[in-house]
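Recall the central idea of this unit: under ordinary conditions, the amino acid sequence of a chain determines the structure it adopts. In this exercise we apply that idea directly, starting from the sequence alone.
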Amino acid sequence: FRRFRSRYSLAERDIIVWLPPSYKKNTDKNYPVLYMHDGQNLMDPYTSFAGQDWRVDETVTRLIKANLINEIIVVGIYNTHDRLEEYSNGERGNNYRKFITEELKHFIDSNFRTMQGRENTAIMGSSMGGLCSFYTAWDYPGVFSMAGCLSSSFYFNEDNIFKMIESYKGEKKNIRLYIDSGEDGKKDAQKMYCLLTSKGLVLGDDMDYYYDRGAGHNEAAWANRLARPLIYFFGKHH
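Accordingly, the structure predicted from this sequence is:
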């Protein structure tokens, strides 16, 4: 879908939708949905940063064929020149998250056979996209029950996200989080894991944490780790 518009005064952007193998044949079936940031980096090396994509289509297909995950729909949200602001916690970031939760999700649910409930809806990204995924699930747990945060920029805006969680006094958030890092931001990922534990989230139940020794901050590293959060969120054991 080209030049998708939002009423929240955001730049237009392309949206790509990947449909699972049985979608066209099995017309009675509805599917869980994974929303992913930096859409141009997900499936096509020609549109990707530095010519390296996440191989999302290949990895999801492989896991489905191996019977490790349920079939899912993947929605790739292209970034814009406002990426930093949109993926952060400022006004533009708040508007971007409203765009996803209110406008884009409604569009996808209206045009595709989706399982619309929170328990079948995930969001994922890396770096600033990981930060944005965290904010989205934290602020909209009624829409997203799962957030994949790969090599997340938790330090952004003077550790704002750590301060937000430290000051949170409400009930335990009913969300499941995947948090990882390579050598990039390892201390921040560990700090986030400890902080979430202090707020009642339990490793294995509410959270999966992974340290990828020696890995850098790039699409190749995230492509290599992608199977883990996919299995955690959409695995056949759930």
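The chain has eight helices and seven strands.
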